[in-house]
Each structure stands twice: as C-alpha cells, then as structure tokens.
Design a protein that fits this description.
Elements lengths: L2 E14 L4 E11 L2 E7 L12 H11 L10 E5 L10 E12 L6 H10 L6 E12 L6 H6 L2
Parallel strand pairs: 3-4
Antiparallel strand pairs: 1-2, 2-3, 4-5, 5-6
C-alpha cells in the first residue's frame, strides 16, 4: 500500500451535538492517492463522534475536500485508549450521499449553468453510516501516525 504525506494535520472541528456545542479533532492524509480522514474522540462529556459521524464527514467534505466524491474518501474513527472504549479504531463507510450545489450567482453564471447543464457538485452530504471495527494491525500506518 502506497502512503503519502499529510494533507491536513490534526485540527479542531467544532460541531453542534445533541445537547450542546462539541468539538473533536480530525486530520487528513492520502492513502493510495485518495484522501483519508480520521476523527479523534475527545472527552466523553459530549455527543460522540460516532453519533455525529454523518455531520462530521459532511463538514470535512465541504470544508477541506470540496470536489471529492464521498466514495473516493476513506473515513476512520479513533477513540484514545485512555477513554477505555469498546473499540479503538473503526472505519466508516456511507451507503448514501447527496450532492450539494451552490446556486449560480449573477446573470452570466445562471446563463452558463443553463447552457452547460449540471456541473459536478462542490460538496456532498453523507448518510447511512456503517462501521467496521479494526484491529490495530488493520489500520494503515499513515492513519495511525496522524493521532500520535
């Protein structure tokens, strides 16, 4: 497996949890020429990354990976061992994705859009998460390196 450099180092991501504002950390790297994102759970006093994974993945697709299709991005969850989790690593796939397009701005942009047809969406929303628990040996080394 070819692994390459970090695209986005570990960065805080704020989101609205079920009851109050929350935050986790995430990082992006390349695995075999495709983006891979790891979300790192913070203290378990807020809504977990597992409960908000669709929102978190959609935010990163819009903010950092605009133009990338969700099926071309790998997503991972990491729960630090100090949290005593049931699973430390999980890979997440999504069964559904929805294109999000910004409306054309201005008369010329609207005319071009009408003539050219639908362009590739700028970002995507995802849904239908499915989790696969991973043993430490199944986690790509480039992903592990992001959370050290």
């Amino acid at each position: 497996m070819t692994e390459t450099a970090v695209i986005q180092p570990l960065t805080e991501l704020r989101y609205q949890g079920f009851w109050k504002p929350c935050a986790c950390h995430y990082a992006i790297t390349n695995l075999d020429g495709k983006p891979a994102v790891v979300f790192v759970q913070g203290p378990l006093t807020n809504t977990s990354i597992t409960n908000m994974i669709e929102v978190l993945a959609s935010l990163v697709l819009a903010k950092d990976l605009a133009g990338h299709r969700p099926d071309g991005v790998r997503f991972f969850e990491f729960y630090p061992p100090k949290l005593n989790p049931l699973r430390v690593w999980q890979e997440v796939t999504f069964t559904e994705s929805y294109p999000l397009k910004k409306p054309a701005q201005g008369l010329l942009a609207k005319v071009i859009s009408m003539v050219a047809g639908d362009a590739e969406p700028e970002s995507w929303a995802v849904d239908g998460p499915q989790w696969q628990a991973l043993d430490d040996g199944q986690v790509p080394s480039a992903i592990k390196a992001l959370v050290k």
